[in-house]
Amino acid sequence: MKTGKNDKHSELYSRDSRRMFIFLMVLTIASAFTFQGWRILLNNYAVDVVGINGKQMGIIQSVREIPGFLAFLVIYLLLLIREHRLAALSLALLGAGVGLVGLLPSFYGLVFTTLVMSFGFHYYETLNSALTLQYFNTTQVPLVLGRLRSVSAATNIAVGIFILGLSYVAGYPLMFALIGFSVAAVGIWCAFQDPTHRRIVPQKKKMVLRRRYWLFYALTFMAGARRQIFVAFAVFLLVQKFGFTIREIAILFFVNNAINYFLMPLIGRAINHFGERKVLSLEYGALMIIFVVYAFTDSKTVVAIMYVLDFIFFNFSMAIKSYFQKIADPADITPSMAVGFTINHVVAVIVPFLGGMVWMVDYKIPFLGGAALAGISFSLVQLIRPADAPRRAEKDRRASAVRND
Question: Would residue 108 count as lying in a domain?
Fold first, then answer.
């Protein structure tokens, strides 16, 4: 890609970061392909084939978050294997877990395969975030995150079309196997690539908890709770209450990701232009409304629109990562991402289970709880200090100047 002084994205593909960007792009496409395929198929497979109820779905989603709770163990695995290689092998594990789903059509089979794919997914996501924050500066990170999520959205569209067409000629076992095992092969191939350079700051190989990161920890904790309402119960609501078929879910995901393909780069630019506080305030203010509508609407059209909006605002959370990069010591990034994922999943392990229990009383309760969580997050976001950004940006400029010299 050609860049120049007047290009808004100048230096996005610098000499040092180009190979890492391509590596992350390949991992992102593969991860999105298998995870989105799993999401599209899971609820219909669970209801139509396995016959689970809301309580069991809550248990499955809680199990899915256990590996996220154990994300801090990534720090110790890095004593044995380098970050980029562990990220690739984690992707392979994600693919293998998804590939096995259709071969074990029972509640306990879903629990097992969910646990396997989730270890791969959460360890991959931890390392993907760490590599992004290490290899790109504070101006580049929102743009890189936006572009990667845009490519992820395009991949989601592709897998939606793929499943929509394949569903006419193949059953669940074959669809899960094609989606999962092909990505496992990509992950193994990526494990033999090396996009790194030695000019980044060495990362600490131990737990890092600092008082001055408390707001990042708090926002991450609340994001984990809010995210689970969306992941565990939004699509389940569409399927169980409103009767969405697998093809309708695939079409909805297509529309969803078509919008996000164009929107994600704009969100990255908005973070640079308006700052994390304003972007996150918009997210959580909107989510309070969306969750209340989820709880009370009886319209299939309205709930579909809410799901699209929910998915859009879900991606605003990348501003939490860019905020952390601006306040963090460079050597703290990888251990802090691992600790952040663990904090994110402390409540995430509990929320799906409790949500599934109260769903059996009244499905509205989990969504009203989500509105309350969004309100708390909105209050916390107001404590972000925009003054943090210029100081860290200046450090990045100086470091970049030294490398170029």
Answer: yes
DSSP string, 287-300: HHHHHHHHHH---H
**Total count of domains within the chain:** 1
Q: Model's pTM, two decimal places?
A: 0.76
Check if the beta carbon of residue 16 is closer than 8 Å to that of residue 199. yes
- In whole angstroms, give the CA distance from residue 340 to residue 75: 12
| Assigned token pair, 55 | 């309580």
Range of the domain at 177: 18-194+211-393
Residue 8 lies in a domain: no
pLDDT at 349: 67
Q: Identify the CA nearest to 277 among candidates 376, 370, 374, 380.
A: 380
Q: Comparing C-alpha atoms, which of 318, 314, 312, 316 is closest to residue 257? A: 312
pLDDT per position as a tens digit, 217-251: 999 888 877 777 877 788 888 888 888 887 787 78
The secondary structure of residue 136, as a DSSP letter, is: S
Burial 309-348 (b: 16+ CB within 10 A, else e): bbbbbbbbbbbbbbbbbbbbebebbbbbbbbbbbbbbbbb
- Contact by Cβ (8 Å): 221, 346: yes
Confidence of residue 291 (pLDDT cuts 50, 70, 90): very high
Q: Residue 330 gets which letter from DSSP?
A: G
Specify the residue for token string 């107001």.
382
Q: Tokens standing for 68?
A: 């996220």
How confident is the model over 193-215, as pLDDT tens digits? Answer: 887 766 676 666 667 778 888 89
Q: How many helices (H) and strands (E) does the chain have?
A: 17, 0
Q: Tell me how crowded residue 40 is: count the other CB atoms within 10 A of its CB.
A: 26
Closest CA to 86 of 17, 202, 187: 187
The answer to whether residues 290 and 228 touch, using CB atoms and an 8 Å cutoff, is: no
Mean pLDDT across 317-334: 84
CATH code of the domain covering residue 341: 1.20.1250.20
Closest by Cα among 108, 81, 45 to 196? 81
Structure tokens, 181? 């095992």
In-domain check, residue 262: yes
Instruction: With CA atoms as reference, report the closest residue to 116 among 199, 206, 176.
Output: 176
Angle 346-347-349 (CA atoms, 0-180°, nearest 5)? 75
2 in a structural domain: no
Structure-block tokens of residue 87:
């990220």
